[in-house]
Amino acid sequence: MPTYNPPLRDMQFVMHEVLKVVDDLKQIPKHADMDADTITAVLEEGGKFASEVIFPLNISGDAEACTLDPVTHAVTTPKGFKEAYKTYIEGGWAALGCDPEYGGQGLPFVVNSMFYEMLNSANQAWTMYPGLTHGAYAALEAHGTPEQKATYLHKMTSGEWTGTMCLTEPHCGTDLGLMRTKAEPQADGTYKITGNKIFISAGEHDMSDNIIHLVLARLPDAPPGIKGVSLFIVPKFNVNKDGSLGARNGIYCGGLEHKMGIKANATAQIVLDEAVGTLVGLPNKGMNGMFVMMNAARLGVGNQSLGLTEVAFQNALAYAKDRLQMRSLSGTKAKDKPADPIIVHPDVRKMLLTAKAYAEGGRALQGFCSMLLEKEHYHPDEKVRAESAEMLALLTPIVKAFLTDNGHISTNACMQVFGGHGFIKEWGMEQFVRDNRINMIYEGTNTIQSLDLLGRKVLGNNGATLKKFGKLVGQLVEEEGVNEKMAEFITPIAILGDQMTKFTTEIGFKGFQNADEVGAAAVDYLRVAGHLVFGYFWARMAQVALREISTGNTDPFYLAKLQTARFYFSKLFPETATLMRTARAGSKVLMDTDAALA
Length: 598
What we know:
Layout: H1 8-18, H2 21-25, H3 36-54, H4 58-64, E1 67-68, E2 75-76, H5 81-90, H6 109-143, H7 146-158, E3 161-166, E4 182-185, E5 191-201, E6 210-217, E7 230-235, E8 237-239, E9 245-248, E10 251-256, E11 267-280, H8 286-322, H9 346-378, H10 382-417, H11 429-437, H12 446-458, H13 464-480, H14 487-513, H15 516-550, H16 556-572, H17 575-584, H18 588-591
Parallel strand pairs: 3-6
Antiparallel strand pairs: 1-2, 4-5, 5-11, 6-7, 7-11, 8-9, 10-11
Helix pairs in contact: 1-9, 3-6, 6-7, 6-8, 6-9, 8-9, 8-10, 8-11, 9-10, 9-15, 9-16, 10-11, 10-12, 10-15, 12-15, 13-14, 13-15, 14-15, 14-17, 15-16, 15-17
């Protein structure tokens, strides 16, 4: 059976030694009194909830899955899920990062992000029920009317009500301009909404008193395409004026998908039959509100794979230390045993270190993005808010795609460490692989994220935002350029930073002549950009570790950090050279293939 230990020490390192989040938080009035001890105490308790309450339900939940009553359309979650959710809301965890105006605790986003990493490690399927609520909450907070906020946000903050996002339909995936769900205006200002949605995570369940669906639909006079999409609140149970629950609304689960992974989360086919809804924001401007939820979800999906990478690494490491197999190529290491533990073998270490490097690099990036989100919303300086929003927009597709691709690489590598046992269900490793696989697909496939990064976020403003991230790299290079001990970490990012300018310009020029060139290069381009970002944070982490060691600090944590940084730059970062070469190969070898694909 697998185990899980919350990586609190590394979280503290990222937040307080590398990012120095408290210094930044003190510049924000609502967090002026925040301190490291408070953050640590909250995360310690959060780690106990993750490891002691929901982690034990992960394997059993996967085996049992959700069940649908075809007569009542009710969905029952696996044994223990509902009780764990009750513990979650009683502990105040649902309100952790929400606004005190609606009953929230108002803690920084970075705390909520680190907490959710632990929840994802412990049980991704369970975590999706409350996790989606944060995105719905954010959309309503940004675009809801005062009445809508008063009606819904308090209950969503407490966790009594959960939320979903209803976008996809059977005939269209990400191309929401093709959607057909209709919204008919009524005399009382509400709308009757009719249509079908699919792949709705947490779309129906028994864990909360009400489910608040945010639904995309078309008004009768809507223009065609994405410009004719409006956003509506459609609750499972209608809400009376006094806040009590009213009659069952015309929205129900018509079926549950049978899936590769996250089986304990209800992926619902949702039927809307003249369901009562209220408009969020302006008519035909629904994507403005939905993008708030989608961007939050994209950061959350990256966090899902981060969590799975961490828990897979922990279990593979423990197994590699215990499992005896063959002798070391360089001579016997465990002379008192019939064979050496497999951790002595170089390729086993490569697999373990790959997962460790991707987990720790991902944690630093998630922490950085959480602070950008904090500054975007609450920093008193308007310029800082704007710059933070711009940088976060650039990094969001990298978080979603690079972290989930890395999660796929890492969970598979960790399963491989187990050999044949990794393929067997009782060890839990194959579940981590299966659960992670959806993360590369939903909330916009990783190819769509790559097109968004290269087409919109980079070429869309002639690389202006990318250059701003390049300045961060340049500042670190200038700061440590003469430090010989930092050369192995600084030189690679300095070289790649220079290469990115020419690389981006070349792809952009080719794309201007033929748009397929952008499509052909985008996926490779995102991984190159992802390594530039990871390289920057790994260099910063190595910088801190070297400083601590130079002062005489003998904590083995810092030596471990340096060794992982060296592995990352030697074994993982160099794939950028191949990626740039394949990106430059162009679109012809892909598009001039009608005979091959006949």
